[in-house]
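This part of the workshop introduces the protein records we will be handling. The question running through the whole workshop is how a given chain folds. To make this concrete, we reproduce a full record directly below:
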Amino acid sequence: MFDNDFVGTTYTDQDSVKDGYPQFESSLQAFFDRAISSSKKLFTTDVTGLWELYLGNLPVEAKQHYTCHACRHFIERFGGLVTIDENGSMESAIWDVASTPKFFVPAVSAMKEAVLNSRVNGVFVPDARVLGTPKTGDWTHIHIRLPQDMVNRSVIRTAHQVAAAKREDFNVLSRVSSQHTTENVDQAIELLKFGTVYRGDRYIPAAKWFRNVLETRAALPTSRARENYLWLAALEAPNGFIPSNSSNLGQTLGDIADGLPLVEVGLRLTDRLNPNTFMRAQSAPTANAIREHERVFQKLVEAGVVSEDSLKRRYAQIEEVPLSIWAPNEKVTPKKQPTGVFGNITPKDKKPSTAREMNLPSTVMTWEKFQRTLLPTADKIEALMDNPNRFMAMVTAAVEGSPNILQWDNTFSWYYHAGVDADIRKRVEEAGGRYANNEIRVSLSWENYTDLDIHCITPGRQHIYYGAKRSRCGGWLDVDANGGHAQTMTPVENIRWERNAPEGRYRFYVHNFQERGSGKTPFKVEMEVNGKTWTFNGVSGATGWQVDVFEFDYYNGQVTQIRHAAITSDDSWTAQPNTFAKVNGITTSPNLWGDDPKTQAGSHVFFLLDGVQDTSEGMGRGFFNEMLIPELREIRRTLEAFTASTPIEGVEQASACGLGFSKDGEWNVTLKVTSGNITQLVKIDRWD
């Protein structure tokens, strides 16, 4: 097996050439290239003692010659690398007996056997293209060159940090794979497909991926193969697909595994996907976090992923929006310039044609049917503005050419106006409180057994709270929830003045009397004063925490000098309630534009209306965390604070605003549709 010509002689470089060492180096590279073909990934193992096996299987007289610090470093650090296939089979990425010169076969065979008897313990994430040291002086060493796309491409994480994150992904996937069955996942998929869960369809791809993982894993013959397969699955999992127990999909699967009825499972998921708290930061960033996030952001700027201008947003104009669904069929003729002495006087509008208008009975149909039957021949459409909840506005990059911060391949995003919260109304009325027909009403809602309380300090310095529910000035806490013990997962509290509310300074604040959840409870406070509403969204701290939500002066039925209000309501929109507005165009949400739609962001239809704008400048709505590219997720708390204090530019030029509706939930929008000289009312009740 060994070449005995060297026994008792001095070993030279010519001898190593005779051994085939140059061919050995090149054969390692050639085999490695074949091993990683088809985009195979690399994994580390817990193998030890490779260097000793290497030297121990070389002829005695050659050991001193091949004892090399650089080669030892390569073998000990990279000699245990393996690839894994879909069957969980593990193969060495470095050692191949068939292509190895005869002199090195015993060493390679021993090392390969040791590697294949070891266990995978991590994902290999290189930080350089070359593994090992190719040359020092006149000496060459064992080394491997990698394709560029295998090198760590993260701008903000080191190779070690990326590998650590993948190791945690494997740990999570191993845990949840042992907790759930394909039957449970099938039930979850059916629930998500049914369409009753708001934005539930965004989780269908992840659920299907996880089901395939469970099915493939169960079919493998050995525990080692199943473990290896999970390493591969964890590495290749799309971002957010592994259903950890704290994720929305993971909690849904847990609810199903616990035997909860699917109706209740759906309701619990809907609560978690509440737009007011979904993927919102749990609290304001600390000073240290802001400094660290600034450092991360600058790294992304230096790498060209984003620029400082990328965060600046402005309102979109309808000319920029592809009206992919419908545009009015009418000719636009330039207005004649006024002439004469009285040319500046606006004449009375001619009465529009009302031929057969409204004489036909109104029709109720789905959006899918409307789009298929009536929309293709519609010349003109008007929409009834009777639901402020559905007001929406489209937003885009303020600086043209700045790198895109959104997941889809255009710079457009959107937001909905908060409006009056129908869920709060339902909770208040079911709890026996009075929601409508009040002069002043402030309602607090949250989603767990924590005992949050709403407090009010009245103009007369009276204190309304759970310990003094009625005040002498007519204020009344008529609903108190979760006091004393856990009562409901859908609590609400309600302070109101039916009439004759005193004038002066009001202060409302939220206090966490007893935390019974994770220590951070998202909540919403809605205030209505003489028909005008404001909302405040926040996250509570632990027991004893409190925060002011509304402080204002009240005189002559009007709120002035309001502080702490996160969102103003209906009258910030330039829309006349319960009137019809001309539809200038219909389009889908920007995540669906182009050849690569991102359906995980939901499916929406927007009716862009003439003359509708949000004059509040959209503070906090320039972008939302769930819309951002993955590179920005790590600093989302600071980004949320940034957009919360940054107005959207160009409100005067905003013309891509109107009414929006999603595939999930009810629509109940009334349209006036004109085709030729026939006009009829159509009510669209849902998507399909």
